[in-house]
Amino acid sequence: xxxxxxxxxxxxxxxxxxxxxxxxxxxxxxxxxxxxxxxxxxxxxxxxxxxxxxxxxxxxxxxxxxxxxxxxxxxxxxxxxxxxxxxxxxxxxxxxxxxxxxxxxxxxxxxxxxxxxxxxxxxxxxxxxxxxxxxxxxxxxxxxxxxxxxxxxxxxxxxxxxxxxxxxxxxxxxxxxxxxxxxxxxxxxxxxxxxxxxxxxxxxxxxxxxxxxxxxxxxxxxxxxxxxxxxxxxxxxxxxxxxxxxxxxxxxxxxxxxxxxxxxxxxxxxxxxxxxxxxxxxxxxxxxxxxxxxxxxxxxxxxxxxxxxxxxxxxxxxxxxxxxxxxxxxxxxxxxxxxxxxxxxxxxxxxxxxxxxxxxxxxxxxxxxxxxxxxxxxxxxxxxxxxxxxxxxxxxxx
Length: 398
Description:
The chain is α/β, with parallel strands linked by helices. It is about 30% helix and about 20% strand. It contains ten helices and 17 strands. The protein has an eight-stranded mixed beta sheet, with helices on both faces. It is elongated, with a radius of gyration of 30 Å.
């Protein structure tokens, strides 16, 4: 009885194996799994493939299943197909009506995304794979990002013999967003060893919020330029358009200034922890190419200290005062002295150089967490208020 049972079980297992479908991957690994779309739940389910079941990778299922699973942020209007077309990244070409400068930036934007895509797959021959042509039409020659700029775009993907992508946008920045969206619709299909793109796509998109940003504080903790670029990259992947750079604070002043060269000498944590004018120009250009504007922040009149050692000590008050709770919102303490007229001349030169370096459409001048008890503790400030016919309340400092 046990012998017959064993023979029966072996026969059943053999029959089950024969009925299974296997995908043999390029690394030689065999998988019996396929992924099917659960339309009601909007997700892909992993299932064992039957003999006549199509083998679908998770990557392809994710592209063709949920209308929103692969797109971030979700476009304003979209119609996504349910099939994919294979192509070779080496056969991506770009055609554009843009002026040479913007045409180059469009090519570079496609190149960056193509490199990221290739990194997810394998080196494959070009034989029997489709070309992919990206046609970009923009109406404006605007080349510098700003809050409120036109970032709308339309994107259409179709396939006959080759894959054709048509992008229309008012500005380069809208076209760049369209390219970002396009590459979100591409994947490496490990089951067929091919790069694929979702077919039959129509998208109309524009941002819901004109200002979509992130603030980074590099004064309290120095962050190298290479890491700042990684942050800007991340912003571009999510189509965010503002990098708010909090450069100075009480703790450090790491920015090199021609007008005040000693500020960085006194204000940097270390001679290696500084940002030069070349760094700033590089970051502004790097961000602009990725649809991001930089808003620099020179914090004042509170949150000052480091760097101001380079000038007359009378230009600041409450420096490193203790107990700090009596003199500032957070330690270490330090505020500009509004009664010192020479301070305004120094501040003006710093602001002027900030504007020359960043050429920003917006400059953040700080203005937060002023401690009026600090100013009221200074005899020179109190005398100045009395001379101006003002009291010592908050409104008198405005």
